[in-house]
């Protein structure tokens, strides 16, 4: 008799993006011919860097010839890519070994899978609002109680409220927690943690023998001086932090699929001396994963250096310019906005404390613009919407013109 993993029943109903799609479809059906401008989902829209495409084409050429064909590669990733990543981190003064890098098909799956390393008794702290995968992967693994509908929270998680008062970067919790998920620059709030703020978490984690899971998928969007791009810029972080990153937002790989996770050899926790977690993740990846696409990895190598890097940087600058246009446009009509400077996301406060889904409907109905209701990322997001700068420039301009014309705050 097969029985199901009952933890799936705990998952709060309806994933955010399907609900946005449903509402948009309903609206479109009653407004035939009206164009909807999408500044909702965080999905890249511009072409891949030419040097990255060239590298991938070259790889395909090699695969088409039996003399240069290759099949399965190392589960941990191509050595050349891991070594290119070592050099990439050196630019920020971070020294890592290639054996501390694990290449994957993206940061989302790593963020979901990494909790496999830890016991189901661990208490998990997450930022509120948060990227949903940190929450759902731990719910399914049984680290929470039920979803409390009234509060919009799961029993058993420790929520670190990210709000206007703390500039959307919370302090470490008062109580002892075991796993802490942090994302900087943050999706959805666009906030970026300072060195001192990250150091407070590192000090906390070392003191409590906790582990930080640091998602730096937007590190290339940091434009202002003084913000760490990697948690390993903070002294002591190699003892207590795992870092997850991706080529998706840096180099337009959302569809190509490529990311990496760093499990430092020095990493330790309550019952794991240094080295053990690194070898456990190696064991896990070798058994459950057969490596990222070799075509994607060739593209990744090209994205990290030379023309490929410069062209990837230009992509990031393009989206950041969109972010500036959105941010200034929303400010002009009187909204209070955050983010959008070191991040592709603008976190806009709804007028008069309106619920985020209500404001979503107004923006759709009056301005024909789709955004993401902040409440979908956690209760602390209930009076915000996330506006994404991923879009063609002309569509961003059009969306902002429609908002400015049709929305008075
Ligand atoms: C987009 C995003 C990622 C990247 O995920 P991939 O699976 O690599 O495409 C990771 N973390 C956050 C917070 C993101 O927004």
TrEMBL record:
Named cofactor requirement(s): pyridoxal 5'-phosphate
Biological process, per Gene Ontology: lysine biosynthetic process via diaminopimelate, diaminopimelate-aminotransferase pathway
Catalytic activity: (2S,6S)-2,6-diaminopimelate + 2-oxoglutarate = (S)-2,3,4,5-tetrahydrodipicolinate + L-glutamate + H2O + H(+)
Sequence positions that bind substrate: 15, 42, 108, 131, 187, 290, 386
Segments forming domain Aminotransferase class I/classII large: 35-401
Gene3D superfamilies documented for this protein: Aspartate Aminotransferase, domain 1, Type I PLP-dependent aspartate aminotransferase-like (Major domain)
Annotated residues for binding of pyridoxal 5'-phosphate: 72, 107-108, 131, 187, 218, 246-248, 257, 290
Transmembrane regions listed in the UniProt entry: none
Modified residues (N6-(pyridoxal phosphate)lysine): 249
Keywords linked to the UniProt accession: Aminotransferase, Pyridoxal phosphate, Transferase
Domain of life: Bacteria
Molecular function terms from GO: L,L-diaminopimelate aminotransferase activity; pyridoxal phosphate binding
Pathways per UniProt: Amino-acid biosynthesis; L-lysine biosynthesis via DAP pathway; LL-2,6-diaminopimelate from (S)-tetrahydrodipicolinate (aminotransferase route): step 1/1
Entry EC number(s): 2.6.1.83
SUPFAM superfamilies to which the protein is assigned, alphabetical: PLP-dependent transferases (SSF53383)
Enzyme class of the recorded protein, top EC level: transferase
InterPro entries for this protein: Aminotransferase_I/II_large (IPR004839), DapL/ALD1 (IPR019942), PyrdxlP-dep_Trfase (IPR015424), PyrdxlP-dep_Trfase_major (IPR015421), PyrdxlP-dep_Trfase_small (IPR015422)
Known partners and oligomeric status: Homodimer.
Function field: Involved in the synthesis of meso-diaminopimelate (m-DAP or DL-DAP), required for both lysine and peptidoglycan biosynthesis. Catalyzes the direct conversion of tetrahydrodipicolinate to LL-diaminopimelate.
Record-stated family: Belongs to the class-I pyridoxal-phosphate-dependent aminotransferase family. LL-diaminopimelate aminotransferase subfamily.
Protein name per the record: LL-diaminopimelate aminotransferase
Species, as recorded: Sphaerochaeta halotolerans
């Amino acid at each position: 008799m097969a029985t199901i993993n009952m933890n799936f029943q705990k998952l709060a109903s309806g994933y955010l993006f399907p609900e946005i799609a449903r509402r948009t479809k309903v609206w479109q059906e009653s407004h035939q011919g009206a164009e909807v401008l999408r500044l909702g989902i965080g999905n890249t829209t511009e072409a891949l860097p030419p040097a990255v495409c060239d590298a991938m084409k070259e790889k395909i050429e090699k695969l088409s010839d039996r003399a240069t064909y290759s099949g399965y590669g190392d589960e941990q990733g191509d050595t050349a890519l891991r070594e290119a990543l070592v050099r990439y981190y050196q630019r920020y003064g971070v020294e890592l070994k290639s054996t501390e890098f694990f290449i994957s098909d993206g940061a989302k799956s790593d963020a979901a899978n990494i909790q496999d390393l830890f016991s189901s008794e661990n208490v998990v702290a997450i930022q509120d609002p948060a990227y949903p995968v940190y929450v759902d992967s731990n719910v399914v693994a049984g680290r929470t109680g039920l979803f409390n509908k009234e509060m919009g929270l799961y029993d058993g998680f420790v929520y670190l409220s990210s709000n206007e008062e703390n500039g959307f970067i919370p302090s470490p919790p008062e109580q002892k927690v075991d796993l802490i998920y942090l994302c900087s620059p943050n999706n959805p709030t666009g906030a970026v943690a300072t060195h001192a703020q990250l150091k407070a978490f590192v000090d906390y984690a070392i003191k409590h023998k906790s582990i930080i899971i640091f998602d730096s998928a937007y590190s290339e969007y940091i434009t202002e001086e003084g913000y760490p791009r990697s948690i390993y810029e903070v002294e002591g972080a190699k003892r207590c932090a795992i870092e997850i990153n991706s080529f998706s937002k840096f180099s337009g790989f959302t569809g190509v699929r490529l990311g990496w996770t760093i499990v430092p050899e020095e990493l330790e926790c309550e019952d794991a001396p240094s080295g053990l977690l690194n070898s456990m993740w190696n064991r896990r990846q070798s058994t459950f994963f057969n490596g990222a696409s070799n075509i994607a990895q060739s593209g990744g190598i090209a994205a990290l250096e030379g023309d490929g890097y410069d062209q990837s940087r230009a992509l990031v600058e393009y989206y950041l310019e969109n972010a500036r246009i959105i941010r200034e446009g929303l400010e002009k009509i009187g909204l209070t906005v955050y983010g959008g400077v070191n991040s592709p996301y603008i976190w806009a406060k709804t007028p008069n404390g309106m619920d985020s889904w209500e404001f979503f409907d107004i923006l759709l109905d009056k301005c024909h613009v789709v955004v993401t209701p902040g409440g979908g990322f956690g209760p602390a997001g209930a009076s915000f919407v996330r506006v994404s700068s991923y879009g063609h420039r002309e569509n961003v301009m059009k969306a902002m013109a429609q908002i400015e014309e049709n929305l008075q705050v």
